[in-house]
Amino acid sequence: MQGFTIIDFIILVAYLGAVLVAGLFFAKKDMKGKEYFKGDGTIPWWVTSVSIFATLLSPISFLSLAGNSYAGTWIMWFAQLGMLIAIPLTIRYFLPVYAKLNIDTAYHYLELRFGSKALRILGAIMFIVYQVGRMSIIMYLPCMVLASLTGIHVNILILIMGVIAIIYSYTGGLKSVLWTDFIQGAVLIVGVTFGCVYLLSHIDGGLGAIFNSFWTEQKFLAPDQPIFDANILRDSVFLMIFGAGLNTMGSYVSSQDIVQRFTTTTDTKKLNKMMRTNGLLSIFMATIFYLIGTGLYVFYQQNALPPAAAQDQIFASYIAYELPVGITGLLLAAIYAASQSTLSTGLNSVASSWTLDIQSRISKKEMSFEKQTKIGQYVSLFVGIFSIVVAMALASGGVTSAYEWFNGFMGLVLGILVGIFILGVFFKSANAFGAFMGFGAASIVMVLIKYQFTDISIWSYSLISIAISLIVGLLCSWIYTKVTHKQNVVAPYTTYSDFKEEKKQNKLNLSKGSEGAV
To answer: What mean pLDDT value characterizes the chain?
Structure first.
């Protein structure tokens, strides 16, 4: 048990330096306006795909996935299969709309569809508040774990992480963020896969011992975990897959940090490749993490537990005390990478949403591209510094519950946004009044469910919130139309029905063309 050595420290520092150099290398000094927020059109789809993967896999997930299977079963792994629902739905119904409209942000769609600046601003505000809280927690929690393993003061780790992310987010915009995300995602994939192989090779019985624990100790599924329950509000494997699918679709459809990746191209074929590759990476890496967790359970049945072996620190502890010198530094750098990629993405997405969704909509004068870029950079700098300060405050106070409650609450409300996007894409009769009412009703009901009816499964939250948004939204839209007698005008290609009509017309034209040829 050598722990974190000077060689590991050198590797960690070298890695962080390389990330900073890479971010500055891909920065473009003469960026203007939307190029800062959407890239310059030269970013390959596979880079963006890995960036989405790195964004969705927060360091909290990095640490907790292995911990879940170590202390329990693989039940949470089934949530990853929700990708098989989320990706096809997003590809078929939402990406064609986003690509055709060439939207600037996720909430730009709301303004185009409902003709409401206020709805666009509401969506942006909810995302920004959620994201700022999330970034602070993402810096704080992993740095606390790394501080206990490396001996480096937690505030130093927080400061370094924040400063590096701010530098390349500020100077390079989305292009720099995407390329550094790609590098950090690749390090994470290679490093964690190596860690899994190394672990398996040092378990007596190897993979066979892990499979034996599945059956003899129920480490895959516990006997009392139902596959399906007729009451869809209760926990089951089916509900977990379906609910997680809706949650993931919510991120793909309505969260600016993910939608921002879709704005880098209007080529639907590239977008589809991007989505499928991201899905495969996510399921593969989740499987690796859960395999590591069960492997650690078997390994520590055969060997003594290391220091700091709490559930969510078990993988990090294994890295620090069991892996060879040098590899430890690289793997701990991978944990740091997961934090940094999520942080840099958050900074750039908040900057773009504030500038394009809020500042440009409330400004009486049209902003030049140069001014948009400068505002985005200032927002990125300010939000980065603010998040560092909050993360340090959390570290010094050791208080997480209030912020975890805050983060969970805002994540819940942000998830409600997807109901409004579904309302807009699928129903031409929906209007802005109905969208506001649907959002308000879903928010109230979901807060009551979360804090009053705690016996309802969290995996049914998205299903309930979407259903309420649609029912209330459609009903209020109908009432508004009847009372005001105002015709609901919908912009072209803001609903999926426009694409269905276009396909139908193309088939009809082809049919007529073939008849004419005969």
So the answer is: 84
HSE on the CB side for 200, CA within 13 Å? 16
Alpha helices in 57-153, H assignment, sequence order: 59-71, 83-89, 95-101, 106-114, 117-150
Task: Cite the DSSP H helix spans in 221-368.
Answer: 237-254, 256-262, 268-302, 314-322, 327-352, 360-362
Instruction: Quickly tell me which residue has 């649907």 as its tokens.
Output: 438
Structure tokens that stand for 441 in this block: 């009703």
What one-letter code names the amino acid at 204? D
Rounded Cα–Cα distance for residues 131 and 45 (Å): 25
Of 329, 326, 330, 306, give the one whose Cα is nearest residue 318: 306
**SS3 category, 151:** coil
pTM score, whole prediction: 0.87
The dihedral through the CA atoms of 229, 232, 237, 241 has a sign that is: positive
Q: For 7-47, what is each residue's pLDDT tens digit?
A: 888 888 888 888 888 877 877 555 665 667 776 667 888 98
d(CA 213, CA 71): 13
Do residues 246 and 465 make contact, with C-beta atoms less than 8 angstroms apart?
no
CB neighbour list of residue 4: distance below 8 Å, 6 or more residues apart: 149, 150, 151, 320, 328, 329, 332
Can you tell me the distance from the alpha carbon of 267 to that of 8, in angstroms, rounded to the nearest whole number? 43
